[in-house]
Every structure is written in structure tokens, then in C-alpha cells.
Amino acid sequence: MINSISEFIYFNKKKIFIVFLVLLVGIGGGIYYLCYDDLIVNSEEETVVEENKDLVIEKKEDIVKEEPKEENACFFDIKGQVKNPGVYSLSCSGRVIDAIAKAGGLTNDSDTSVINLSKKIEDGMVIIIYSKQEVEKYLESLNQEEEKKTICENGKIINDACVNNNSDADHNANNSSLININTASLEQLMTLTGIGESKAKQIIAYREKTPFTKIDDLMLVDGIGESIYSKIKENITV
Does domain 179-237 sit in CATH 3.40.640.10? Predict the structure, then answer.
């Protein structure tokens, strides 16, 4: 039996070697295929993960890049001596002078001497810019206060931009006891808490170059900060 096997191997060495080689190649190919398949699967999984990460990053960027809400807009109707009368909108922090610019600016026949250009815009506001002839007629009136009321409240449309409308009139009446930082004397300014002679002189020097348009402009004067301003803001006006 042993001799038979030995003889079989001896006479079939080449065939046995070829069979062994084929089996070895087959086993090696199978192992390579399995490993290569795992690499492809892992690569695809990593690609999916990376794509998901990109989506998450994009979504986060979208959240970060969300634009802030715009400030509330106020609509107003501007009439009279402007180049483009009509209804417009502005930020509610805008002023009458901004409304005029929005309407294309003033005409050559305009006169704003009776208009408060620094008045703040309000929603639904009506602004009327008068002509030189209208203002001249007002100035020539014997009863200027009555004429002012007539020109600002003509019975049809109330001009909200007029300096002497009811709200302004009431405001001025209430402010009669306040110190006007644009016109007060040195002695009057010195009656304010924290304002000595030196600071009073600084206020006068500042307003001679740049008149105050609102009371908190007082903090633009050197030496007058929020601390002093908070103590006197209820006692001053412009």
C-alpha cells in the first residue's frame, strides 16, 4: 500500500504540484476578494459619514448666517414742496430731514423755517413742506400764533411735522421751567447739579460751535459723562 502511494506520488509529481498550486491560488484569491470587499464597504461607509458631516456643518452654517430681523419701519405721507411727494417708509429711528431726502429733496420754492427737521418719524405721519409764499404769509400775519395754528392745522390735514402742533405745544408748556442748554446763561447752567463754573463755560463754548439738538448731546461736552447727565436730564431741554 505504501509502495503504491509512493509510486503514485513519484509518477504524478507534476500533476500533484499543479493541483496544489491551483488550490493555493484559489485560496489566496478568495482571501484577497474578502479583504478588498471589506475595504470597499469601509470606504463607502466613510464617504457616507463625511457627507453627513458636511450636511451637519452646512446646516449649522445656515443657522449662524441667519440674518437679523430688520428694524421696524414707519410709513409716512410727505406732501408739498418736495421733488417726489408720496407715501414712503423709513426706520422708525429716522427724522423728518431723512423723510425729505427719501422724497428726493426739497424744491427751490420750499421753506422749512417752520418745520422741525429733527423730529422723529412716527408710523402714519403726515409731513407737509410749505412754500416760501405760504411761510411769508404766515410771517406777515398780525396774529402769528393764530396763523401758525392755521398753517399747521388747516382743518383738513394735520401736519404732524409742524413745530407747533398740539404735542409740541404741550411739551413746550411743560418745559417752561426747564433750563434750555442752548440759551441758558452761565449762572443758570451753574444751578444744575454737578455743573460748576468751569463746566458751564465748556457748555457755552461747545454750543457756540455746535448747537445741541437733543439733551443727551450734553455728554459730548468734555467732563460731562453719564453720571452727571443722569442727575440733570430731568431739568434740561433744548
Answer: no
